[in-house]
Design goal:
alpha+beta; tt1808, chain A; 6-stranded mixed sheet; 13 strands; globular
């Protein structure tokens, strides 16, 4: 059986039917819409990060859905993504053209395995400098930085004490604001 490799053109031609589509190295990935807790946590985290990035003119922050066209056969939509001022040329009218500086995935029961494994590897291969996984059920954010083609753990937000995570080392994240 021959595997069909889909491209950005195939992806762009998909119907606007409310499903969440991505291309993972030519393979179509379809996931259900996120649940309420996922959306609450994503919104809370986005607001905290948005205020910080605007106040310090560090770059642009976006929330899904927004395509990151990593290659002609890899298109993803992180829940939250940050593009630093140094990478600003990657922001086009249609999408992020290349790797964002930071990709954040808020875990859901239907996407946890994809986010912790497939996207973990995919983001590293495509040069995403920082990757966070946000686990609303466990109330934990794990932060990773790209080094030598793979991710290394660089911090965790857990419990009730604020913690700063790269690339925002100057922003202590308050768990009470995120998990509210």
């Amino acid at each position: 059986m021959t595997r069909v490799i889909l491209t950005y053109a195939d992806y762009a031609a998909l119907p606007d039917d409310g499903r969440r589509y991505e291309l993972h190295e030519g393979e179509l990935s379809v996931t259900p819409a996120p649940g309420v807790q996922h959306q609450r946590v994503a919104a809370n985290l986005f607001v905290v990060l948005w205020h910080h990035t605007k106040a310090h003119n560090r770059g642009e922050l976006f929330i899904a859905p927004l395509d990151c066209i990593m290659s002609d056969i890899t298109v993803v939509q992180p829940d939250i993504l940050f593009v630093s001022t140094q990478d600003a040329s990657r922001v086009s009218e249609r999408a992020i053209e290349g790797a964002p500086t930071l990709a954040i995935e808020v875990l859901s029961p239907s996407t946890e395995r994809i986010d912790r494994r497939r996207k973990f590897d995919l983001y590293a291969r495509h040069g995403v400098a920082h990757y966070w996984t946000v686990d609303p059920a466990a109330r934990v954010i794990d932060a990773y930085a790209l080094e030598s083609g793979g991710y290394r753990s660089v911090g965790t937000l857990a419990g009730e004490a604020p913690a700063a995570l790269p690339p925002f080392a100057d922003l202590p994240l308050d768990p009470a604001q995120i998990w509210a």
